Amino acid sequence: MVGKKNNIEEKEKAKQQLTDYLTKRKFRKTPERYAILDMIYTIKGHFSIETLYTMMEDVAKFRVSRATIYNTLILLLDAHLVIKHQFGSSTQFEKCYNQGIHHHMICTQCGKVTEFQDEQLQAAVVGTKLPRFKQINYSLYIYGLCSKCQWKLSRMLAANKRAQEKVEEKETNKKAKGKKTKGKKAEGKPSIVRSPKAK
Length: 199
Ligand SMILES: [Zn+2]
Ligand SMILES: [Zn+2]
Prior knowledge:
The chain is an alpha+beta fold. Among the domains are: 1-99, Winged helix-like DNA-binding domain superfamily/Winged helix DNA-binding domain (Arc Repressor Mutant, subunit A), CATH 1.10.10.10; 101-118 and 135-156, Dna Ligase, domain 1. The chain has helices at 4-25, 31-40, 49-58, 66-78, 119-126, 147-181; strands at residues 82-87, 90-95, 103-107, 113-116, 141-144. The strands form two sheets. Strands 4-3-5 form a three-stranded mixed β-sheet, with no helix packed on it. Strands 1-2 form a two-stranded antiparallel sheet. β1 and β2 form a beta hairpin. It is elongated, with a radius of gyration of 30 Å. The termini are far apart. The model has no long low-confidence stretch (mean pLDDT 87). The structure holds zinc ion (2 copies). Residues 46, 94, 102, 104, 115 line the site of one zinc ion.
């Protein structure tokens, strides 16, 4: 985890990287771009465009349009200051300067995203030869069920099983009753008469 001091340092370095990028590309160094970068490097973890938009207004007290946010994100992606994730149907972003490689476990049921690191995985990816391709960053997405959803599912399955067993119990009781009353009274539905198969 990065401390508060490191956080400020990291923010400054990210800002410097943005300045270098804007200078190199001859893009304008607008206050909006820096304010958005600043906000992104304050947010812990993943965020959507909508979250960023709200935080710009409520936390940074800096009014920017959704279009500006969108365009700035494209720029920051190109400057390797932000990475984009597709978690199922939701698009999320994340700061990436000095963040280290990490992977994501995504629950397909509730959408919960959990990060994890694995040195073996890292070594395997770095050691993989990618012809005519420059590796910049990577992230693995592992889809599955989180512990909460596993628990919910097992409870649901157990409830289904109980319901099924109850139905079966009723059926056997009915059958047993039917046998007992057989011969005494012609009760209930007539028993199915199986027609002998002609040979
Ligand atoms: Zn879940
Ligand atoms: Zn992440």
